[in-house]
Amino acid sequence: MARMPADTHCPYCALQCGMTVGGAGTVAPREFPTNRGGLCQKGWTAGSLLSHPDRLTTPLVDGVPASWDSAIGHVADRIRDLQAAYGPDSVAVFGGGGLTNEKAYLLGRFARVALGTSQIDYNGRFCMSSAAAAGNRAFGIDRGLPFPVTDLDDAEVVVLAGANVAETMPPLMGHLTGARLVVVDPRRTPTAERAVAAGGLHLQPVPGTDLVLALGLLHAAVTEGLVDRAFVEQRTSGFDDAWRLAAQWWPERAERACGVAATDMRTVVSWLAGSARRYVLTARGAEQHAHGVDTVTAWINLSLALGLPGTPGSGFGTITGQGNGQGGREHGQKADQLPGYRRIDDPAARAHVAAVWGVDADSLPGPGRSAVELIDAIGTPGGPRALLVFGSNLRVSAPDAARVAAKLDALDLLVVADFLPGETARRADVVLPVAQWAEEEGTLTNLEGRVLRRRRALDPPPGVRTDLDVITGLAAALGFGGFPTTPRAVFDELRAASAGGPADYSGITWDRLDAGEALHWPCPEPGHPGTPRLFLDRFAHPDGRARLVPVDHVPAAELPDDPYPLRATTGRVLVHYQSGAQTRRVEELAAVVPDVFVEVHPDTAARAGLVDGAWARVESRRGRVLARVRCVLSVRPDTVFLPFHFGDGQAANLLTNPVLDPVSRMPEFKVAAVRLLPVSGEAVSA
Amino acid sequence: MRRIVVVGNGMVGARFADEVRRRGGARLTVVGAESHPAYNRVLLSTVLAGGVAPSAIALQPTGWAADHGIDVRSGVAATSIDPVARTVTCSDGALLRYDDLVLATGSRAWLPPVPGLPGPGVVPFRDLDDCLAILDMARPGARLAVLGGGLLGLEAARGLAARGVEVTVVHPAGHLMERQLDAGAGAVLADVVDRLGVRLLVGVGAVSWAPGVGLTCDDGSLLAVDGLVVAAGVRAETGLAADAGARVDRGIVVDDRLAASLPDVHAIGDCAQHDGAPPGLVQPGWEQAAVLADLLTGADPAARYRGTRAVTRLKARGVDLTAVGDVHAEDDDATELLRLTDSRRGRYAKLALRDDRVVGGIMIGFPDAAASVIQLHDTGSPAPSDRLALLLGRALPGEATPTADPGRLPAAAVVCRCNTVTKGALVTAWRSGATDLGALRTATRAGTGCGSCAATVEGICGWLAATDAPADPAPPQLQERHFPAAQLQESAVPAGRDGPTTQDDEPAHDYDREGAA
Description:
By secondary structure, chain A is of the alpha/beta class. Chain A is about 30% helix and about 15% strand.
């Protein structure tokens, strides 16, 4: 069916740049507040995957092409058998932050109702969980940016704590041109370069010491007399307890632990306090730690002490990563959550959602395992025996990848819905080919909490179904025929399920969105204009106050030692997205960064007997990666960096430490102890 | 449960109590001679400078001890120990039995043998009461002398000067902070401190103090001041331990288990003497507190205290001073010495390296370099081969910033990072007919991401227009997602790395990049 070009949004990150996709899959940028007509190379080339030769177009059962009916029937039979033998929790579901709101929501309902399993979690656990937990704890609600991105245009000072937006979210940089930037990153990233070039600062802490830096900043804010006393008094609680711990981190002591000069700490707080419009934004660099929640909390404490959150023209926020990383964490694909950002252990929330679903509240399972724990439980008594994966490539994205691979291989049944044969799909028992972004309808919620329409520009190839079709089909095959079938109907059900919850979508309709309304949640009734800016009057805790939570430094779980003397940190490059299953298949992107590399300071490389461009073996206690050496001065001599977008023997997550944050269950992606060894050319090709 | 009695509720004693609380498994009694609840002594100079209120430096919240079932007795001093009976007698008459005794009695201010000391108008600078007494004297316009130009004396003087006090530091040694600085650094520091409005008398000793008159010095001068702050050093508080028969030298001698020479008696912090612990700093005491808590609660019976590397940081606004390790190291066969003196700008940097490791350093006015030096010294990591960058940090002039002249930009330089567009790709697109800004953007997507390269792209466009007529008049093949092969090749080279530096695409007259200023 020929279609008109569709105004939709990029398939990749949470900035959700506006784009127009033509019927042949051609991409053109579109004016939209977040990207203002800009696209990065990933967005520009997104269309090439629609007709990629690797595209999955036929269901596969044990590697053999099968009809949809037989594939769905096979999966349903296996689920029934396993659940009959081992109970409902023997079947687990793994979702993703790239799934539309409709899919994320329906996946949660499918798990809780059709499967009756508590075992559902998603890859946002690896992404936003620490920021989300810290935001909830401090503000009573978690919306990544509680203000529109365009508010940043007028900022005078912006602190980016562990954010490399010049590479991960390039058009966002267009909103930061007027501000003095402070970039906190162990590497001199392109974002950090921009900060320095424009008169800002790059603070380069030792990986795993971001929390100390934030404590040092709070200390400096107090002793320099820069705390906004009136704000603290009127709008917050807990300052004294937070200060008591920060009092023990005078800048000179913090400096010793984190390596950032005490003078720079004083400069940063004086810039923040001396400006009327200032923001502190965190991203994965601050969050992907075994103490990520506390690290984000430390930045929030600083922001609150200086009076940023809930103040027009200023604020604290976290930069959501995945395309629907925001909506995906609100509607029930998280182990402890029901739609509308409700808690699954809250009786009132269970009653409300059960009523929408037409089931008895007591029939809903309780909280399940978080992502890493869910994977870890595979092969253990009471652990999952089947795993249904939607929108995730966890063989690449989960920490300690070798262990993940072994766990997945130990499953009785692995079902993967995907549109390309990613590393996880390639090892699945059943592969279900699904539609891509330009072939489907739905909504996503971007990094600023604005709900956006994804629109269909072309039909999926023959043989391909949407994720929603797959979920509804599986539910029906399991005897649950009442699931809504169109994305619009799913969204209307989501609205009802979210009504009254923290992330209330009940007033948002597709018609309003299609009419061009800019709607940020919460939007609790049909005529409600949405909430572009949260917290202006009150924070979401019952007393209306934001909470400073006392936090203290805890060293990284694994520190360098003699056998593993370097700190490895992982991250992203501009031309690849997440596990790279998509972008590695785009010729133009793969040409820029074809293989995993390891950034090494030239001195460190020389000591390891490595030269620029050579292959090196990077080893941790958990695994080894072959990576091409890049000698750069932009990384600390005690630190090496690897992007995590590559699979198999190039997966940086072979090295990472699966130790978890006690609150968010976020793994420690950002610090692992490693060593570097040279590799001969033959060894690489062997 | 083991009964642990802690004598001393200062930064180290209180820290130890908290470390034990976190681990559990012991009953704690803490006696402290000061009447205040435990407070952060390190912040006293900040209190003096007005950075924080005296009420805001408490280490623990009100009710902390009661909440955790810890018996804290403030204003109570221990008067004697009976190591046989395992008891401590207190100034309030109480007798405390212990299974383990932890001495964290700290140190006391040392008053030099100068007539008039102690006496009216004289305040040592050691504890919170001292601090309050000094604040009482520190009215704007008041004249105060500080006896002692060490770390504490200078921090006090700087804070007082900021309060509008007329301050003179009297320092008998040859240069300031002679324990932590060599003479060159001392001289630079003197310049810096002088410029901050603190008067210095270096190499001058005090002869006598007379209240209402002032301080007579050994150069014959009389300093007419209203008060005298003494910061001439401290002595470990060891009397209690010595009386009980413990081995005492400069401090209570302890081993790596922090054990004193009496059974089940331990000492930590300033009162203890451990070969690896530099005196007068809080960090060793805190590390000792953690080790001892591990040992006494059984949390880690293998825990040992092996020492702390000395790092001195002066906390005084307007002065950034760091000293680590062997500050007096000089050039010899085994030692590599780097030194820069920039007196006019108040900067001094000295680094001593052995076997490629930093073994000592003094940095004044190089804050970010100092932060790196501290880490290298702490971790014992090899020092960067770029010694100049190590010594100077950000003060090292960078290489000439990328030229603004588009003609001199190498072809492989990535102009638009968002779309990996090199200068070479722009030149190629131009020659394929994209001969204005809009066409260049459409052909290459340069500038269509974050937009920050717009000016550079415009500059290259202007340069091409001025220097290079299109070589190929054929209409451009500018479909969406079309990329000239040459550009892909260029793009394969990551930014700023080992890319080809040939300038084949450049107009021929503009190749002498080396000639650029």
